[in-house]
Amino acid sequence: MKHFTSVNDAGDIDKLVLEALIEKKFPFANKELGRNKTLGLIFLNPSLRTRLSTQRAAQNLGMDVIVMNLDKEGWSIETKDGVVMDGAAAEHIKEAAGVIGQYCDIIGVRSFPKFQNRGEDYSNEVLNKFIQYSGVPVISLESATLHPFQSLADLITITELRPHPSIPSPRGEGKKCKVVLTWAPHPKILPQAVPNSFSEWMLRANVDFVITHPEGYELDSRFTSSHSGRSGGASAKIIYNQDEALKGADFVYAKNWSSYKEYGKILSQDKNWMITNKKMALTNNAKFMHCLPVRRNMVVADEVLDSPVSVVLHQAKNRIYSAQVVLKKILQSL
Ligand code: AN0
Ligand code: CP
Predict the structure, then answer these.
(1) Quick one: which of 42, 116, 222, 260 has the fewest CB in 10 Å?
(2) Phi and psi for 27 in degrees, rounded to 5?
(3) Rounded to whole angstroms, how far apart are CA atoms 20 and 5?
(4) What's the 319 CA to ligand 1 centre distance in angstroms?
């Protein structure tokens, strides 16, 4: 593995999940692999889980880690080519990425969308320029469009907790579990990265996948229909009635996102979409999932988040092993 920016870099996802579960069982088995190797974590936006879980993963593999909040601690960065830099930006991303590549063997980058221009956000300029100019493998710590470490951790969690357990995802065998991604209300404009990414991973997993959201919240169809993998050509089932969608669910994954169609707009704050015990009662004793951070009593009621059906901490723990398995594979290919 060279870079890790989407499910397309993951290879066989069943195998990857199995390997991650081995890392979870024997977290220090590869402590020598990362010796004298340095991971750089570059943040242009806040983070709790990604920052700490990726550090922990690297430490389990024996790596050194350096972290920089580039947006707050670095020089302000120009990303456009050919500009006369007579404004606020003191340094171009070509040099910044190139220099960080001199200090690190692998670089992680977090860069959220700006919500000014959909095309620009969806071009993932910052991440791609790090790939272009750093000269080392780059892993996405959440880009403007995708959050692959989160989705891999989510798939590990579903594999561990699904009600029809077997060896992870036997192709086409047995009863598939039903996974429902539901939009939920939120006061702020949030990216589509988590739902886009979750969708493209679920379409390749051995699950029945349903997305429910109010009209106007349709995601970019590039992420809700699959062109390769097991589901080759399949699309997520989109149901606008949340109660209908939740029926028989084994996993309910709640997340807010802003509109993709009316880019960056909040079209609804309908509290009826919040996940409550009454909503969970429609499901097949589903587990409740969220990537965190989550707004209590906006996205999900306390009664659900504080109950045993909530597996949000299990998901957060699996962020270590999603990062660890990917770092291991990249280290093996250096
Ligand atoms: C971010 C998002 O919605 O993409 C990060 C989630 C992992 N969440 C917030 O900004 C609250
Ligand atoms: N889930 C997640 O990525 O959390 P952070 O934004 O805190 O890293």
Answers:
(1) 116
(2) -65, -25
(3) 17
(4) 15
Look at residue 2 and tell me if it is in a domain.
no
User: In 10 A of CB 39, how many CB atoms?
Assistant: 27
CA of 170 to the centre of ligand 1 (A): 32
Cα separation of 40 and 30, whole Å?
A: 19
Is there an atom of ligand 1 within 6 Å of 191 CB? yes
Q: Give residues with Cβ within 8 angstroms of 135, minimum separation 6.
A: 98, 101
Nearest ligand to the C-alpha atom of residue 143: 1
pLDDT of residue 277: 98
DSSP state of 5: S
Q: Is there a single domain that holds both residue 253 and residue 158?
A: yes
Q: Mean pLDDT for each consecutive 10-residue tract of the chain (334 residues)? A: 97 97 98 98 98 98 98 96 97 98 98 98 98 98 98 98 67 77 98 98 95 98 78 83 98 98 98 98 98 98 98 98 98 97
Kindly state the DSSP code that residue 240 receives in the 8-state scheme.
S
Looking at residue 234, its pLDDT comes to: 78
Radius of gyration of the chain (CA): 20
For residue 140, tell me if it sits in a domain: yes
Pocket test for ligand 1, best of 111, 140, 194, 292 (most atoms within 8 A of CB): 194
Same domain? 302 vs 329: no
- Identify the pLDDT of residue 251: 98
Question: Does residue 67 sit in helix, strand or coil?
Answer: strand
Instruction: Name the DSSP class of 41.
Output: E
Cα(258)–Cα(190) distance, integer angstroms: 5
Does residue 304 belong to any structural domain of this protein? yes
302 shares its domain with 157? yes
Task: With H, G, I as helix, E, B as strand and everything else as coil, classify residue 78.
Answer: strand
